[in-house]
Specification:
The chain is an all-beta fold and 487 residues long. Among the domains are: 25-165 and 426-456, no CATH class; 271-408 and 462-487, no CATH class. It contains no helices and 33 strands. The protein has strands spanning 26-28, 32-35, 38-44, 54-66, 69-78, 84-92, 99-103, 118-127, 132-140, 145-152, 163-166, 170-177, 189-195, 201-207, 226-227, 232-233, 239-245, 249-255, 266-270, 287-290, 296-302, 313-319, 329-330, 341-349, 360-367, 378-386, 392-393, 397-404, 422-425, 431-442, 445-453, 464-465, 467-468. The strands form 8 sheets. Strands 1-7-6-5-4 form a 5-stranded antiparallel sheet, with no helix packed on it. Strand 2 and strand 3 (38-44) form a beta hairpin. It is globular and about 50 Å long.
């Protein structure tokens, strides 16, 4: 492990805050911007003025969709030392046509006089049984980093002050609910996090009342350590949690009894990773989804297909058995001889499709030229899709960029647009990746906000064949141990 310590976080300077209601809710179509051949619509922007943060910045979105509703959540007003001024949200109740934007109350002093100095690591879920939307986040103060759960009972348009889910020195929370009506655990919700001062020991908690209360913290059967576990729920109620281990691997664990216990971890794959240039904050955190038959999909950035590890591809592994994972395949965005470096993927799967007909949308960030510097790197956003479960893929589409790294807020671990992103694919419809997109700052004021491709992106598929991983690549570079805190 890197010898990182949890930094001491400052509380916001409230005298300089803008006046905001407890939740701002206004239908937004703030404006469209054309990048490459894709129009983008801005769905949120940072309104805060507290002097602890770098304004105007929004980073690290997650999304979830159910029916015609899409909810995204993200950090707003990034703070160098960790976290942000508050957690923002953007909700569409009409399939992505219009959006309502606001900020979660009761976490920081910026909205609703919350007790925490900063907020971080937003993740979204929907509990069908209790008809409640949930946003999990971290509340950061000088003495603790707690996992919180904010609830919405009106379709993601307004939100309650948060429920405290877990307390301690915690990091990289995630959340999911069991929405299969025939599952024996229908209505259970599951939150994952790690304990930073216990070498990132993984923990899971379960709620059976729509996130109002949470059960005891439970470890995996083998006491695993890691971060970024993204739980997904199979139709039979089994919960699978792929995560990045502290030993340079993607691993997974499961529960077959509704979160009463969690089994030992199994190997998905080792990680070979190229360090992205320019001092950019990025890594190999996995992004995971599930299809209607219970096949789990996990993607991450990995250099094993490129001799000498000069740059990363996005790679994919699938599981149909709960305990074993299939071969690692390369998403064929471009040739392995290209100079492109791909990282921070967000996968979405149409949860009404499965197997050889599964519809997949995949957004990712990339450098056109991997060997760049902090002043010469150019950051872009791409998208690619599959209509046959990842056997073959469409041509890639550039969604945004080029962006200069100086347009991004700084952190203790480098310039940041997010450690993760997310894509949601509507049933039978388009993909909706929510993206942090930057324009040139105005003086010292940033212009990094949340955007969607206007109307979403079609899942088209194509003839670009995915390829399985080669044999052992002696030139591949193992991923360095992950830091203890990624707030």
């Amino acid at each position: 492990m890197y010898p990182f310590r949890l930094p001491r976080y400052r509380r916001p300077l409230r005298a300089t805050l803008v006046a905001l209601p407890a939740v701002v809710a206004a239908v937004l179509l703030i404006g469209s911007t054309a990048y490459a051949n894709v129009a983008l619509t801005r769905i949120s922007t940072d309104p805060f003025t507290d002097t602890q943060a770098q304004h105007r910045t929004e980073v690290e979105p997650d999304t979830f969709s159910f029916g015609a509703t899409i909810v995204s959540a993200f950090q707003t007003g990034r703070v160098v030392g960790g976290g942000s001024s508050d957690i923002g949200f953007a909700t569409s109740t009409n399939g992505g046509s219009t959006w309502t934007s606001g900020f979660l109350p009761g976490i920081t002093g910026n909205v609703g006089n919350g007790p925490y100095g900063q907020a971080s690591d937003a993740a979204v879920a929907f509990d069908r049984k209790h008809n409640v939307w949930l946003i999990s986040s971290l509340g950061i103060r000088s003495t603790s980093v707690d996992v919180l759960t904010s609830r919405s009972t009106n379709g993601g348009l307004t939100w309650s002050s948060p429920v405290t889910t877990a307390t301690g020195q915690l990091d990289k929370n995630w959340i999911v609910c069991d929405n299969t009506t025939t599952s024996p655990f229908f209505g259970n919700c599951y939150t994952e996090y790690d304990i930073t001062n216990s070498s990132d020991a993984l923990r899971m908690k379960t709620s059976s009342d729509g996130g109002l209360t949470w059960g005891p913290a439970r470890a995996t059967g083998d006491g695993a350590h890691g971060l970024g576990g993204q739980p997904v729920v199979r139709p039979n109620g089994t919960v699978l949690v792929p995560f990045e281990s502290t030993s340079s691997q993607i691993r997974s664990f499961r529960s077959i009894d509704g979160g009463t216990s969690w089994r030992s971890t199994v190997l998905v794959s080792s990680i070979s990773h190229h360090t992205d240039a320019g001092g950019l904050r990025s890594g190999a955190l996995p992004s995971a989804e599930i299809d209607s038959a219970g096949t789990a999909y996990v993607v991450w950035s990995d250099c094993r297909f490129r001799s000498g590890c000069p740059s990363n591809d996005i790679v994919l592994s699938k599981s149909t058995s709960e305990t074993t994972w299939g071969p690692v395949t390369r998403v064929p965005i471009d040739a392995t001889s290209s100079t492109v470096d791909h990282f921070v993927p967000g996968i979405g799967v149409d949860r009404t499709t499965s197997g050889g007909s599964a519809r997949i949308g995949l957004a990712y960030y990339f450098y056109p030229t991997a060997s760049c510097s902090s002043s010469t790197c150019r950051l872009d956003v791409g998208f690619i899709s599959s209509t046959n479960g990842g056997t073959s893929w469409s041509a890639a589409t550039q969604l945004a960029g080029p962006m200069t790294l100086s347009w991004l807020p700084n952190t203790s671990q480098g310039r940041m647009f997010g450690d993760y992103i997310s894509t949601s694919v509507r049933s039978g419809g388009n993909a909706f990746p929510v993206l942090a997109v930057a324009n040139a700052p105005s003086g010292t004021t940033f212009d990094l906000a949340m955007y969607i491709p206007t109307g979403g992106l079609a899942i088209t598929g194509g003839a670009r064949q995915a390829t399985e991983a080669p044999g052992a690549n002696p030139a591949a570079v193992p991923l360095a141990p992950v830091p203890q805190t990624l707030h």
